[in-house]
């Protein structure tokens, strides 16, 4: 039996699983919204005190669950929010002192590798080249791959929380803010756009986070079906319409959108703008949501 803890910028995740008859099985999962990068901390490179305490509290809850399952093997990883914070090492040390959980801070390349493994475990990859995108709070990973191998991968400091802090200046977001964001993305993603032309992936696979929210907004009246579907392919025009609806909305309007959880009310705006930019700059028409991502990649890895 193995426990995996994914310490993200917005949410902390716990998965407990085991291998039975050669197949991996998830026994327990829990997600806690922590917002580790709130209060402008993600842009300043620090975890503010309230977020710091929420993080410690969440990991205490996770440790209690792990002890209930009597799990001996724990793999805990932290990504951009801890990686980039000047008090990130203090946080890691406090977690170990309080809960005896050792946290590994992984770099963006490692993060992308585990995200690929998660998507592969979901059996969504084929011979067709895919662009896998994982929009986190602090970083976004882009991976071009098929079911056999990764052709290219990169991690960019354009997570939803970071973009929200840097570019969301009015409600609803203004044309000027969108222009400035797109200009920033054009500069940051210059190499990706060149690599795209080389490999020409034909399907976009969005993993976890915002793409789970997109799926749940589509299937809000079929809640059970939404939660049970690991992979879900959107109708292209309906997906683009949803992006436009989100981008034009106010915070208050998003609060009342069915299927959208409170944690993602503002993050989904920046995710929508980022996805719209990528779709506009490529010729990708097929869009798939995949629930499996980093945490499942960690769980199903042999390391």
Topology:
Elements: E1 2-7, E2 11-20, E3 23-33, H1 41-44, H2 49-68, E4 73-78, H3 80-83, H4 88-99, E5 103-105, H5 108-121, E6 130-135, E7 140-145, E8 150-156, H6 160-167, H7 175-188, H8 190-199, E9 203-207, H9 209-218, H10 223-228, E10 231-233, H11 236-248, H12 251-255, H13 267-281, E11 286-290, H14 294-300
Parallel strand pairs: 1-4, 4-5, 6-9, 9-11
Antiparallel strand pairs: 1-2, 2-3, 6-7, 7-8, 10-11
GO molecular function: pyrophosphatase activity
Domain Ppx/GppA phosphatase N-terminal: 16-302
Pfam families: Ppx-GppA (PF02541)
Description:
With 303 residues, the chain is of the alpha/beta class. The chain folds into two domains: 2-105, Nucleotidyltransferase, domain 5 (2-Layer Sandwich); 109-295, 2-Layer Sandwich (Nucleotidyltransferase, domain 5). It has helices at 41-44, 49-68, 80-83, 88-99, 108-121, 160-167, 175-188, 190-199, 209-218, 223-228, 236-248, 251-255, 267-281, 294-300, and strands at 2-7, 11-20, 23-33, 73-78, 103-105, 130-135, 140-145, 150-156, 203-207, 231-233, 286-290. The chain starts with a strand and ends with a helix.
Give a brief outline of the structure.
With 303 residues, this protein is α/β, with parallel strands linked by helices. The chain has 14 helices and eleven strands. It has helices at residues 41-44, 49-68, 80-83, 88-99, 108-121, 160-167, 175-188, 190-199, 209-218, 223-228, 236-248, 251-255, 267-281, 294-300; strands at residues 2-7, 11-20, 23-33, 73-78, 103-105, 130-135, 140-145, 150-156, 203-207, 231-233, 286-290.
